[in-house]
Amino acid sequence: MKSTFVFFDLDNTLLDHSSAEKSAQKITHESFPELQQVSLDEWLETYRAINHRLWERYQRDEIDRYELQKTRFSATMKSLNLNPEKSSEIGATYMEFYRTHWQWVTGAKQALTNVSEKYKTGIITNGFKETQQLKIEQLKLKSYCSEFLISEDVGKMKPHPLVFDRATEMAGVPRDQILYVGDSYSSDILGGKNAGWRTAWYNAPAVDQLPENRADITFSRFDDLLDFLDV
Length: 231
Ligand SMILES: [Mg+2]
Prior knowledge:
Blueprint: E1 5-8, H1 17-31, H2 40-59, H3 65-79, H4 87-99, H5 108-118, E2 120-125, H6 129-138, E3 147-150, H7 151-154, H8 161-171, E4 178-182, H9 185-194, E5 198-202, E6 217-219, H10 222-229
Parallel strand pairs: 1-2, 1-4, 2-3, 4-5, 5-6
Magnesium ion binds at residues 9, 11-13, 182-184.
């Protein structure tokens, strides 16, 4: 069975979230002297670990997005023995810088262009609604894609089946004709497979090897995805 609808994940599949996060944290670190009691590397590493754990709690509905956004900076500062007094201001500053550093993942813009000329396409993304909408506008994704699903609108995050069921309705084609392209094995590939979709795993650094890889194709260069889709 051939795919007729292709959904893409957004962060770290089309938009280089990790680089934007790193650049924004660098300027944030430079802007607040209280942060410079620790090195940028130490700050970034601690922030990423704490942010990751908070996202997992958000995914399990244990905290809401406001608590996530508030806590990730205060908890990072406390864990590094920094005074968290200005953590809200620092968090808001980071978000402003983050929004000015969004760029395409290498090869992704051309790939989306080619794929969208031959297939119906859409976006499924976890994340904060306003931020993800701004990303969609900034990358002009509406000129390529017809369907957009932000997990906050569903009330559940990938890999929850509700997200994939809603997206299946939006695509309006049988499940086995949908291909999902994403970088997260647990959220995108397993979520897609459990929904009866086909999946393409963008494993960029090609470092994650799994004993049982359920993706239909694993690629680290978008050219390989284009070959797979014959575009
Ligand atoms: Mg992603």
